[in-house]
Amino acid sequence: MTIAVFPGSFDPLTNGHLDLITRASHLFDQLIVAVGQNTAKKGVFTPAERVAFIEQSIPDLPNVTVQIETGLTVAFMQQCHATVLIRGLRNSVDFEYEQGIAGMNHHLDAHIETVCLMADPQYQFVSSSLLREVAKFGGDLTTLVPVPVAQALAQRLGSDRP
């Protein structure tokens, strides 16, 4: 049985993330979505809120679970007996960034393979920081994030529209 881990901050969860989760769930026996904290960024939602958004959005994916991750992803994967790390790529900048992380993860545990999935073209321009900025000024995000996330972003960032 192949267990894969898709780590990220998911702050906020996007439809691009959901697309990758769905696609990865069809490739592996079990997929664990690991919700972590990007220490370089100030988060909008708590890890528990992010887990809830993901769980609400994937009821039809029985082989997917969602867990909070703290610490090194490699250590988390070892605890879960996972051997595949899933990453999404939107562009060449993402590739350069992920290439370095994959190298370090391989150095830390040579049994971990990184599998990169290309973002669906309709989501290639989407980034969490860009979505937060649009939400702050009341922009409509309903085609880019699940409706509950759009509503929560509008509430949290002070706008009165989703």
From TrEMBL:
Broadest EC class assigned to this enzyme: transferase
Keywords: ATP-binding, Coenzyme A biosynthesis, Cytoplasm, Magnesium, Nucleotide-binding, Nucleotidyltransferase, Transferase
InterPro entries (alphabetical): Cyt_trans-like, PPAT, Rossmann-like_a/b/a_fold
Pathway where it operates: Cofactor biosynthesis; coenzyme A biosynthesis; CoA from (R)-pantothenate: step 4/5
Subcellular location: Cytoplasm
Record: residues binding substrate: 9, 41, 73, 87
Pfam families: CTP_transf_like
Protein name, per record: Phosphopantetheine adenylyltransferase
Listed cofactors: Mg(2+)
Binding annotation for ATP: 9-10, 17, 88-90, 98, 123-129
Family label: Belongs to the bacterial CoaD family.
GO molecular function: nucleotidyltransferase activity
Chemical reaction(s) catalysed: (R)-4'-phosphopantetheine + ATP + H(+) = 3'-dephospho-CoA + diphosphate
E.C. code: 2.7.7.3
Gene: coaD
Binding partners and assembly: Homohexamer.
Domain Cytidyltransferase-like: 5-133
Site feature location: Transition state stabilizer: 17
Membrane-crossing residue ranges in chain numbering: none
Protein role: Reversibly transfers an adenylyl group from ATP to 4'-phosphopantetheine, yielding dephospho-CoA (dPCoA) and pyrophosphate.
Organism, as annotated: Levilactobacillus zymae
